[in-house]
Backbone:
């Protein structure tokens, strides 16, 4: 069953290969994350499926959405809510053809043009970034900045999840500029307490959470 | 897509595994291979390009799927059932630690699922979880697998083939000369990478293997 994306500002926590995906997901959910994305490029399919099943159960328990990065096969096999695709993953149209209406599809975009194209191809949300400088992944272009986020938000009808270099201090600015969600990796995974980091970020963008 | 049935439509006896040298934007080795395969010899072609991102692998699989597929030719991709299905291939080949066939089939990927196995225990697990064929090796010495220790040998191949009802493909150091020993020890067929790399001898290699099985 496909749940809709939250309409109120929400926190998405993406797993980090340096620590256990399942325990990170649980801490993030306890802290108030409304979406978990399992992203692991080196795990075997068997491991990934096992973690995906665990995290999906946790997400159900906490009423959060569960996405799998790249692996549409694993997303379908574990009954995830969606799949998140990068620009170098399976094309969105192909993914939609096999997932039908069973999965939400999120697509990463690194520019307003890519975001528009992703919307046209049927994305349910756009992961736009990186907005601020970030150390998480090697980047091939400068940060987009808040202005590009605002421009994308005025042009797109699907929700935008901002990513890249997000902190407690700059998170509210992103929501004000039109992001529906914020996505973080290291801001939660590398924090002394991932649970508290998630809680503080969730509160920063949505004081009621 | 019907779920595969080896009694109704037996698998080919030859499994060609791609060389892992595809690079996006350059002329495709897989496409070149498909174009020069003799039409009258049934074979499976497994696209195994583990270094490619999913998007490039999908493009490669899609262009392979658009080539003429003579009767008895099957196309598979390594690991990614989603890509196999989206591109319109016949199946997926699963490494030993991949998601299991039964889970993939139940998830909406009703395709041929082959499994790499390196022991009788893992052959049993693969059969119980709905595998359609097994790939076992390395049977003979092969440079690329030396880091994993000694080859498994014909005796282990024979024991493994007796332990399963599934078709078993022998892999690792197979040649047209030793292929017969694999058949005599119960192998349904044989597989290889380097065995099929030389385009000048490909047709002869296939003819000789085809005459064994």
Residues:
């Amino acid at each position: 069953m496909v749940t809709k994306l939250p309409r109120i500002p929400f926190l998405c926590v993406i797993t980090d290969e340096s620590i256990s995906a399942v325990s990170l997901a649980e801490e993030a959910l306890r802290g108030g994350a409304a979406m978990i994305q399992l992203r692991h490029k080196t795990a075997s399919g068997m491991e990934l499926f096992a973690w995906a099943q665990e995290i999906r159960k946790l997400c159900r328990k906490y009423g959060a959405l569960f996405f799998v990065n790249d692996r549409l096969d694993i997303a379908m096999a574990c009954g995830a809510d969606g799949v998140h695709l990068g620009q170098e993953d399976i094309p969105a149209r192909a993914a939609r053809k096999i997932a039908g209406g069973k999965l939400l599809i999120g697509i990463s975009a690194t520019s307003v043009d890519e975001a528009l194209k992703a919307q046209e191809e049927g994305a349910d949300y756009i992961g736009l970034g990186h907005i601020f400088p970030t150390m998480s992944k090697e980047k091939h272009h400068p940060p987009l900045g808040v202005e590009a986020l605002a421009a994308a938000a005025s042009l797109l009808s699907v929700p935008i999840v901002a990513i890249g270099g997000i902190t407690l201090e700059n998170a509210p600015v992103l929501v004000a500029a039109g992001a529906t969600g914020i996505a973080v990796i290291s801001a939660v995974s590398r924090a002394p307490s991932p649970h508290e980091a998630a809680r503080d970020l969730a509160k920063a963008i949505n004081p009621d959470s | 897509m019907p779920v595969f049935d080896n009694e109704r439509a037996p698998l080919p006896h030859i499994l060609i595994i791609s060389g892992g040298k595809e690079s996006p934007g350059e002329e495709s080795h897989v496409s070149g291979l498909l174009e020069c395969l003799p039409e009258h010899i049934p074979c499976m072609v497994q696209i195994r390009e583990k270094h490619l991102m999913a998007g490039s692998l999908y493009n490669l699989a899609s262009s392979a799927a658009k080539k003429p597929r003579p009767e008895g030719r099957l196309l598979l991709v390594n690991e990614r059932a989603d890509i196999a299905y989206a591109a319109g291939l016949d199946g997926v080949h699963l490494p030993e630690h991949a998601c299991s066939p039964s889970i993939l089939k139940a998830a909406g990927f009703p395709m041929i699922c082959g499994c790499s196995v390196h022991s009788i225990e893992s052959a049993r697990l693969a059969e119980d979880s709905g595998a359609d064929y097994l790939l076992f090796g390395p049977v003979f010495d092969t440079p690329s697998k030396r880091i994993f220790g000694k080859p498994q040998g014909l005796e282990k191949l024979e024991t493994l083939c007796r332990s399963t009802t599934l078709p078993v493909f022998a892999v690792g150091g197979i040649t047209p000369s030793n292929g017969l020993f694999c058949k005599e020890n119960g192998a349904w067929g044989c597989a290889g990478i380097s065995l099929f790399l030389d385009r000048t001898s490909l047709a002869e290699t296939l003819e000789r293997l085809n005459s064994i099985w």
The two ends of chain A are 24 Å apart (CA to CA).
